[in-house]
Amino acid sequence: KNNIQYLMIAVLILVIHSGAQAQRRSGPVPDNQMKKSSAGVADYVHYTTVGQVGLTVTNFGIIGEGYNNPDQPSFMYKQYPDNIKEQVEHMSYGGLWIGGIVGDVKRVSTAIVDGVFDYGSEGFEFTDNGDSIYVRSSITTSRYYSPDAVSHQDFITRFHDMGTVVEHTPMNLEVNLQTHAWNYKFAEAFVILDYFIVNKGTDVIKDIYVGLWADAAVGNMNYTSIYESGGGWSWYDNQNGFDQSDFDPMPDDNVPGFPRNIAYQFDADGDNGYSESYVGFSCLGSETVPREHWDTQYNQWPWQAASNMTYPDYFMPVNDEQRYDKMKTSVPKG
User: Fold this and answer.
1) pLDDT 10s digits, 76-99
2) Which residue of 25, 45, 132, 334 has the fewest CB atoms within a 10 Å radius of its CB?
3) With contact defined as beta carbons under 8 Å apart, do 210 and 111 qualify?
4) CB atoms within 10 A of CB 141
């Protein structure tokens, strides 16, 4: 737990377990690296293209495209398939949650919540800074080449929670997001999201929790497409879990391993071989909070189910207090 002035956190979203090394350059996004729009304009047309993961990234805190455009992936793997059975979508939307104690009050700012898709509604609480997404690349032949690039394709943007939203009290946060993707074979199935969060207000924010809300939905448009009349796939055979097993690639050395802590989803029957990949989300850590002071929690609930008589712990939080409490605890095991 800590008081927030600056907070850096990295999240990995993946389809297979992989790893890559790169020089980290976290921090506030310099103004000269932003592409200023003539007015505040939502940018939702950028998606990763260098690897096999096609992930839409916006400049207002949301990831994913919601399956609104058949020509743009939401969170697809493989976007360049050898076999159409491998071209699987994994998530409609995802977004950042940030919670903390201001005074004695639990406050949370959310990019998205269940069933809310329009800015100005409670739950859709981040807005762009008037900047389009800035792209850079470490590939020297790329039109986006920059010596400051971390990966083969960096997306850089920033957004804040200080707009006017009904029934929402801003925490006065600015979020700088950098995403990193590579085209290496061993790194083609994940994207890293690197968040740098700044308290722009005068209030001290204590006991901070940062979460990633995701509407994971595993299915293959080549099997049943939601873009066609009578198409679509059933969400009800998707199953979720939380892998807390330890990863220790060299068990005989003196360096301990670490828990994977990967929230994942898969399609239970695999749709006749068309939807057999898993999607996962994992917190990689923070540069500003020591490892012994942070934990990874996991929660799930049925879509828009504010109460659940069968499984009372699996309910959708509907206000800041409930959302904050969800982020600080996990659902019971079993």
Assistant:
1) 999 999 999 999 999 999 999 999
2) 334
3) no
4) 6
